[in-house]
Write a structure and sequence with these properties.
The structure is a single chain. By secondary structure, this protein is mainly alpha-helical. It has 2 domains: 2-120, Glutaredoxin (3-Layer(aba) Sandwich); 122-157, no CATH class. It is built from 8 helices and 2 strands. It has a two-stranded antiparallel ribbon with strand order 1-2. A hairpin with a 2-residue loop joins strand 1 (125-128) and strand 2. It is globular.
Length: 157
């Protein structure tokens, strides 16, 4: 994880990232595990796009969030992803086909290319006009940004 942070140009330690994530989760009343594992979530991203097509994106993403951030499960493990598919009420056999064919790989590649173009370094990231808000923040911070941008727009009318 330290190497990843360094590559992204982020001057924080993995321990600081975990502490910040845990504090943010607590402020929203969300459970959060020890955050000691980093895994390649590519497979989960591909299945997440498929789940979106099936109208079950929220169910899948909620299950993936809990599996990774609370339970410390490895989202690079196909069996874990298939467990999440089942939990989200999706067809496991169909998911296995999606995985075997890598049918959503190009869409994930496009998403990653767009993220690089926008210089995204964390999720969530909110964009409004020329403003950017990076990372999970208290609602009041987002509300302030929206009010300021709306004020700018109204001032131009």
């Amino acid at each position: 994880m330290a190497r990843l942070l360094e590559e992204k140009g982020l001057l924080v330690t993995p321990e600081q990232v975990t502490a910040n994530l845990k504090a943010t989760a607590q402020s929203f009343g969300l459970p959060f595990g020890d955050g000691k594992m980093v895994c390649n979530t590519r497979l989960a991203q591909e299945i997440g796009l498929w789940a979106q097509e099936c109208g079950r994106a929220h169910q899948f993403h909620d299950a993936a969030f809990k599996a990774y951030f609370v339970e410390g499960r490895n989202l690079a493990d196909k069996s874990v992803v298939l467990d999440l598919v089942d939990f989200a009420g999706l067809d496991v056999a169909q998911a296995e086909k999606v995985i075997a064919l890598r049918s959503h790989a190009e869409a994930v590649d496009r998403d990653w290319a767009k993220a690089r173009e926008l210089e995204l370094v964390a999720a969530p990231t909110f964009f409004m006009k020329d403003r950017r808000l990076v990372g999970a923040k208290p609602y009041q911070v987002l509300e302030k940004m929206v009010a300021e941008v709306v004020g700018q727009v109204q001032g131009c009318l």
